[in-house]
# Entry
Amino acid sequence: MTFDSYRPPVCGAITFLPSHLVEAAVGLAAPGSAERADVERHVRCTLQAHPADGDHHGLVMDLEGRDTGSVWTRWGPGRPPAEVVVLPDCPGEAAAGGEACCEFEGHPGGHSYELADEWAAG
Ligand SMILES: [Zn+2]
Ligand SMILES: [Zn+2]
# Structure
């Protein structure tokens, strides 16, 4: 028996981004670089499975350019997303293979490449 292949699961909580936050997300991008269609409204928390009282975080939109970060939204249990924020990208990168982490800098739990995400399996 080996533990090398064990990957903890992702949270997987889903929510729907309210219309006013779509506008807010577009407003966080550089002028003219994003439109409403670029904003992901079916948001899913891909953090490592976390305590129920912790906020979920879901990626809303990538921002153009290097080191620009991405737009994220946060929401608590049983509540809709209340805000969108720009967070820097996680600098984490797997030593072997160079797979980058898809989360934001300072995120709780393991890096995305350390987790098992059944939606991303393919
Ligand atoms: Zn979550
Ligand atoms: Zn990471």
The chain has a mean pLDDT of 91. The pocket of zinc ion (ligand 2) is lined by residues 90, 92, 101, 103, 107, 111 (CB under 6 Å). The helical segments are 19-28.
